[in-house]
Design a protein that fits this description.
Blueprint (H helix, E strand, L loop, with lengths): L1 H17 L16 E9 L16 E5 L3 E6 L2 E15 L2 E8 L6 E6 L2 E6 L8 E7 L6
Antiparallel strand pairs: 1-2, 1-8, 2-3, 3-4, 4-5, 5-6, 6-7, 7-8
Length: about 140
């Protein structure tokens, strides 16, 4: 009887350890970039005489589908390819990271109130720069 109880206790302990949930959460993002975005502002990397605020209709566009992006400047495609969104730990937070297929530059994103902010080089503008885009209305896309 002692052997059976020992075997049952050992089995329960082994199963409880083996079925323990992973301590590392899945790093999936809830952010969607789908749509057409137009540049409104660049902060942190101004060149003398170059604008940092951009009015509607300026032609600096980022278009996103579920997996592909196109960057347009004044009607000319300047960059296109695939992208993915992931989560990445940075300092005390886990931030949404935008990864283009064509470069290794770190980009973190936030989307709030139809505004897309891309933090380039760091999850905060003070260590890189930020680009702020506005989602264009559907009839203009």
């Amino acid at each position: 009887m002692k052997k059976i109880l020992t075997l049952i206790l050992f089995s329960v302990i082994t199963l409880s350890i083996g079925c323990k949930k992973s301590e590392t959460p899945e790093l999936k993002t809830e952010v969607s970039l789908r749509g057409t975005w137009e540049l409104r502002r660049i902060n942190g990397v101004q060149i003398a005489g170059a604008p940092s605020v951009f009015v509607a209709g300026n032609g600096r566009i980022l278009q996103f589908t579920d997996k592909e992006f196109t960057q347009v400047n004044a009607g000319t495609v300047v960059k296109s390819g695939t992208y993915m969104l992931t989560k990445e730990s940075s300092w005390a937070d886990t931030d949404d990271r935008l990864v283009y297929d064509s470069d290794d530059l770190k980009r973190f994103v936030t989307v709030q109130n139809n505004m897309l902010t891309i933090y380039v080089g760091s999850p905060i503008a003070s260590d890189g720069w930020e680009e702020v885009y506005e989602l264009m209305p559907a009839h203009l896309q």
